[in-house]
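Reopening: structure tokens for the 4HQ complex, inputs below.
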Amino acid sequence: MHIQAITLFPEMFTALTDSGVTGRALQQGIWQFAAINPRQFADNPQGYIDDRPFGGGPGMIMMAPPLQAAIDAARQSSPQGRLIYMSPQGKPLNHMQAASLAREPALIVLCGRYEGIDERILTSNEVTEISIGDFVVSGGELPAMMLMDAVIRLLPGTLGDARSAVEDSFANGLLDCPHYTRPVEFRQQTVPDVLRSGNHALIAQWRLTQALRRTLTRRPDLLADRRLTPEESRLLQYIRQEERDIPL
Ligand code: 4HQ
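Re-run output (same inputs, fresh job):
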């Protein structure tokens, strides 16, 4: 997958290109990266790409012409690339959307700074606006990197064990179950016996019950918009009964 970021801070993306799972995947050729700095398309020798908002008010707005030039340059290398703008006005990012973006051949991620970008960029291009949550950060770069990381780890070959992506939180629409490793005892807390039983059917059932229990207590909204399998319904009934006997 070819990913281009339109950003005033290309160096920030080394967090993704130089480290961890995403860095290794880049070296393996699973994805390619290029940053485009809209400053190179400024119409003035000082390199200004922002200006004061019409109508007044605080802060600066990124001007349309250099941003459009950057988008056009990105389209030269990826004509089929989907253009994404990171912003709190977008649809909140979720696992399903990350999985669907992972099937795109190319992405162009536009990162805003200051108070945002001239609206005419959004109305004169086909843009998918995506939010990483209901809070404000100083620029679109960190949101873009979160989106990119979520997408890249779903690309075939990125994760060592193909099962890790499948068994993650949200891959099945539920929160993850608890995990344990050695030592068996830590601060007087021992690893649940079932996980050391070697009974894989029982372990799978325990993990699903834990995932359902956590989802029910922490994120009931996730259960509301998800269909349950017969086994999940049965386990959920058991959890709800238990909850009546001993409140969670
Ligand atoms: N911003 N999800 C303002 C965000 C944001 C978010 C990005 C701040 C764009 C101009 N982006 N700039 N939340 O807070 O994606």
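The chain has two domains: 2-152, 185-242. The longest helix spans residues 200-218. Marking as resolved unless the reporter disagrees.
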